[in-house]
Design a protein that fits this description.
Blueprint (H helix, E strand, L loop, with lengths): L2 E2 L2 E2 L18 E5 L6 H12 L4 E5 L11 E4 L19 H13 L4 E3 L3 E3 L9 E4 L5 E7 L5 H10 L11 H12 L16 H10 L9 H4 L27 E3 L15 H6 L2
Parallel strand pairs: 3-4, 3-6, 4-5
Antiparallel strand pairs: 1-2, 6-9, 7-10, 8-9
């Protein structure tokens, strides 16, 4: 068993597996690096504040883990040698996609990205996922039964480094199948962003007819990516960017100069939690 910050977590057993519908779901997040930064630390802290058991899966202990956040050894679900980056952008999004589906496969609870801020307790749902706009389901907060067709499909796709998207044009798919058959496949790391993330999730939800299980935009994604600058607007409150139905707000990996956060802005409110 791995120890972090004086805490010990067995990620193979989750009290949430047998929790009733009235219980708050367990929250699980994933981080690579030695520092979370003010925004990500505040987001994790927000789930603790609202009563969620919150576990951060890491390889190295970040220096700024908020109080109340438990640590778990990420290598128990994904070895550090499996960490891959998108070739063009260097993003770790692919690695986090693989990890989130393994959280679901293990039935541990709800996976959340570290840039998701909790506004109020997240309700238990058999399927916990939401539209980010009219066409795409985001995977920043996600849960589903481990034995479901959805989870099996997501896990199988993400565990294949040469996964061929079934939604691409037939001629392109045929080309990729031929390349794979002769030993020169195209790797996921060179494909378009989101190929095993939101695009895959949206395809799978439609494939298995789960649209009615997917929450409206305002529940998890009331802030659109193009509206991120509103987080630094003085005079606005965080709840001004949400609706009464909103349980969390995705901050879209917002990167700011934290030395120049305007007082009285939503970002100021988040960082002072």
């Amino acid at each position: 068993m791995w120890l972090g910050a004086g805490m010990e977590v067995d990620v193979g057993i989750s009290a949430n597996r047998h929790a009733g519908r009235d219980a708050l779901p367990a929250i699980h997040a994933f981080w690579v690096g030695r520092e979370l930064g003010p925004l990500h630390a505040a987001c994790l802290r927000s789930f603790v504040k609202h009563g969620h058991k919150t576990t951060l899966h890491v390889y190295d202990t970040p220096i700024d883990v908020p109080g109340g956040v438990e640590l778990a050894d990420a290598s128990r679900l994904m070895k550090d040698t499996e960490i891959i980056r998108h070739k063009k952008t260097g993003s770790l999004a692919i690695a986090s996609d693989i990890f989130r589906y393994r959280i679901l496969t293990e039935g541990l609870g709800v996976y959340v990205d570290c840039d998701v801020f909790c506004l109020k307790p997240v309700k238990y749902r058999k399927y916990l996922m939401g539209w980010q706009d009219d066409t795409l389901v985001c995977s920043a907060i996600l849960a589903a039964p481990p034995n479901s067709d959805l989870v099996r499909f997501l896990a199988d796709a993400s565990n294949d480094p040469t996964f061929i998207p079934p939604w691409i044009k037939p001629w392109k798919r045929k080309t990729l199948l031929i390349r794979k058959a002769i030993g020169i496949p195209q790797k996921v790391t060179t494909m378009r962003w989101g190929v095993i993330g939101p695009t895959l999730l949206t395809h799978a939800i439609k494939k298995f007819g789960l649209e009615n299980e997917t929450q409206p935009i305002d529940v998890f994604y009331p802030l659109a990516p193009k509206h991120r600058p509103l987080l630094k607007r003085p005079g606005l409150r965080l709840l001004d960017l949400a609706t009464p139905n909103s349980e969390v707000i995705h901050l879209w990996n917002s990167r700011f100069d934290y030395q120049t956060v305007p007082q009285g802005s939503p970002l100021d409110e988040i960082l002072k939690l």
